[in-house]
Amino acid sequence: MKCLIIYFTGTNNTKFLVNKIKERLEQENLYFVETLNIDSTSIKIDLDNFDLIILSYPIYAFNPPVIFEKYIKNLKFKINQKVIIAKQSGEPLFLNNSSSYRLIKKIKKDKAKLINEYHFLLPYNIHFRYEDNFIKELFNYDKKLLDILIYELKNNYSFKIKYNPLLALNSFIFKIQRIGGVINSYFFRVDYSKCIMCQKCIKNCPMKNIIFDQKSKKIIFHSHCLMCMRCSFNCPTNAIKIGFLESWKVNGEYKLSEIDKNDELKGDYLLTHKTNFFKLFPKQINKINKLYDKYFNKN
Ligand SMILES: Cc1cc2nc3c(=O)[nH]c(=O)nc-3n(C[C@H](O)[C@H](O)[C@H](O)COP(=O)(O)O)c2cc1C
Ligand code: SF4
Ligand code: SF4
User: Is the CB of 231 under 6 A from ligand 3?
Assistant: First the structure.
C-alpha cells in the first residue's frame, strides 16, 4: 500500500511532523510513504497510484498557505481515495478549526474519503519564541494525536467535519493574509550592517520573491511574499526586517529533533505558565487525553 504526504513548510515545523508521520506509518507496516514538498515542484502529481493521501500544512492566519491551497485545488483525488489532513500550528485557538474548509470542499467534490483532520501543535515561527520545555510538552500532545491518527486509520474510521459558517467567515476574512503579504513585503528590508551576503534568503524563498540587484548591489523583495518567514527566520545574522511584523519576528532554527530526544526536559511548562495565552492549551490537551484513553486504556 502506498501513501503520499503532500506538504508545505515555511520554517521546517511541518517537515518535522511529516517525517514523524512517515516514520510511524512505515514502522507499523501500514504504508510505504512518499513525501512531496510542494515548494520544490510545480509538477502536478498523479494521485492514482496512491492508496492514502495526507495533506499537511502550517496554519497562516486561520487558513492554509496560499501556495498549498492552489496546489491542492489543481489535483484530482480518486473516488473513495482515503485522505487525511494533518495540519499544525502554534496554538489550539478554536478559530484555527476552520482552516481546512476549502480543502475539505475539494476532497468532497472529488468524492474522495476524508478520514479525519488532525491539528498538531508546534512552536510559533512568528509572534514569540517558544521555550524548549514547552515544545517538549507540545510533543507529548502530538505523540498521542499521532497514535490516535494511526488507530483511526487502522480501524477504517471516517469522520464528517462539522461546518461552522461563522468560523468559515472568519477564515475568509483572514484570507487578508494574502493582501497583507503583498503590502508587508514592500516593507521588508535588509540591515546591511549585519548582512554577510550569504544569499541564503535568496536561494530558499519558495516564491522566488527575493533577488540580488547587481546594479545597486542590494537585496530586493518583490510583492509575491507568502509570509512564510523562512528568510527572516533562517537569516544567520538576523539581518532581515519584516515590516509591520518586526516586533513579532522569531529568528533562529528550533532544534526540534534534539528537544524530542532530550529526556531531561520534563514537558511540564504549563504547570507554571498560566497567563491567558497559555490557558488556551490545557483544554485541547485534555480533549486529546480523553480520546486517547477511550482508544487505548479501555479498562
Ligand atoms: C503569517 C503567519 C501566520 C500564522 N498564523 C497562525 C494562526 O492563525 N494560528 C496559529 O496557531 N499559528 C499561526 N502561525 C504559526 C505557524 O502556524 C506555526 O509556527 C507553524 O508551526 C509554522 O510551520 P512551518 O515551520 O512548517 O512553516 C502563523 C505563522 C505565520 C508565519
Ligand atoms: S540570509 Fe541574511 S545574511 Fe544572508 S544574504 Fe540574506 S539577509 Fe544577508
Ligand atoms: S520573502 Fe521571505 S517571507 Fe516572503 S515568501 Fe520569501 S522567504 Fe517567505
Answer: yes
Q: Is residue 45 part of a domain?
A: yes
Instruction: Pick from 68, 220, 227, 231 the residue to mutate for probing ligand 3's pocket: most ligand atoms within 8 Å of its CB.
Output: 231
CA of 215 to the centre of ligand 1 (A): 35
Each residue of 89-117: b (16+ CB within 10 Å) or e? bbbbeeebbbbbbbbbebbeebebbbbbb
Q: Is the same domain home to 154 and 220?
A: no
CATH of the domain at 200: 3.30.70.20
Pairwise CA distance, residues 27 & 29, whole Å: 5
Structural domains counted in the chain = 2
Centre of ligand 2 from the C-alpha of residue 206, in Å: 15
17 and 155 assigned to the same domain: yes
Cβ 88 vs Cβ 50: under 8 Å: no
Domain span at residue 195 reads 184-248
Can you give the C-alpha Rg of the chain in angstroms? Answer: 20
Per-residue pLDDT of the chain (299 residues; tens, 9 = 90+): 999 999 999 999 999 999 999 999 999 999 999 999 998 767 889 999 999 999 999 999 899 999 999 999 999 999 999 999 999 999 999 999 999 999 999 999 999 999 999 999 999 999 999 999 999 999 999 999 999 999 999 999 999 888 889 888 888 887 766 777 778 888 999 999 999 999 999 999 999 999 999 999 999 999 889 999 999 999 999 999 999 899 999 999 999 999 999 999 999 999 999 999 999 999 999 999 999 999 998 76
Give a yes or no: residue 174 inside a domain. Answer: no
Atom of ligand 2 nearest to the CA of 191: 7
How far is CA 128 from each of CA 22, 55, 109, 125, rounded to the nearest angstrom?
29, 26, 38, 7
